[in-house]
Design a protein that fits this description.
Layout: H1 2-16, E1 20-23, E2 26-29, H2 50-57, E3 61-63, E4 70-72, H3 86-92, E5 107-115, E6 122-131, H4 135-152, E7 156-158, E8 165-176, E9 179-189, E10 196-207, E11 210-218, H5 235-250
Antiparallel strand pairs: 1-2, 3-5, 4-5, 5-6, 6-11, 7-8, 8-9, 9-10, 10-11
Helix pairs in contact: 3-4
């Protein structure tokens, strides 16, 4: 799925042109252990719909026809074990089975949205939420991700699944306030053409027993006149915060 999404994004861009959690090297207070764990179909309400995304990013969205909404158990995670660096693949591509391999995943919900107008800043948004048995389990998974992502900062890795030369360069890994973020440059090299790259923003957040994941693809040309407030440094984080607020409201 990561390969398909990256190629699709590149094509569009070319056509348009109770304990503590260690985060950022510091011990932070753990989450409120009294919150009610989310489970069942309630988990789907954590995801933002097209109306909420349009309001947040000031551009219209529609459901991505290539990626139907998914909801279920751990089997809904992606399995792309052919990657040369499994941990770093989790930065470049959402919801990988390999990076949740030691977690007791209970539920997974994911949905994708595509831009619904021309001359906008964001190509697509993908949201996902993973539920664990308790908030402490989610905190532990998030702490593992922080360590993994730090090691991947500055890494370039080939993405699996095709003979095409599709690579992901990971930069600007940072974490604060239970949100982990990074910038990923998805580059596709085609015979007889210059490499084309699409900027991608990634974010992972933790709230209650939920880990939320966000992936935002941007057009590779910057034009101040283009509609929307999308920004590669802030948009994925903003969406993750909104999803975490939904977790709090549902708990």
């Amino acid at each position: 799925m990561a390969l398909t999404r990256a190629i699709a994004a590149l094509s569009v861009g070319l056509l348009a042109a109770g304990c503590t959690v260690v985060v950022g090297g510091k011990a932070q207070p753990a989450q409120n252990p009294g919150s009610r764990p989310l489970k069942g179909h309630t988990v789907r309400q954590v995801l933002l719909d097209d109306t909420a995304l349009s309001k947040l990013l000031q551009q219209p969205f529609r459901r991505d026809p290539h990626f139907s909404p998914r909801f279920g158990g751990p089997d809904q995670l992606q399995d792309e074990r052919q990657a040369s660096s499994v941990d770093c693949l989790g930065v470049a591509s959402m919801l990988q089975q390999s990076v949740y391999r030691s977690a007791k995943v209970k539920g997974v919900a994911v949905e994708s949205w595509l831009h619904a107008a021309k001359s906008v800043k964001v190509i697509s948004v993908k949201e996902g939420v993973v539920t664990l048995p308790t908030a402490a389990d989610a905190d532990a998974v998030f702490a593992d991700f922080v360590q993994q992502w730090r090691k991947c900062d500055g890494t370039t890795l080939p993405l699996p699944g095709s003979t095409l030369r599709l690579t992901a360069k990971i930069t600007n890994v940072r974490d604060a306030n239970f949100i982990l973020a990074a910038t990923v440059s998805m580059q596709l090299t085609l015979p007889g053409s210059n490499p084309a790259a699409v900027p991608e923003a990634r974010a992972i957040g933790v709230r209650g027993n939920c880990v939320v994941e966000v992936e935002v693809d941007f057009f590779n040309t910057s034009n101040p006149s283009h509609q929307g407030t999308g920004d590669v440094n802030t948009t994925a984080v903003d969406i993750a915060h909104a999803m975490m607020d939904n977790v709090s409201a549902l708990s």
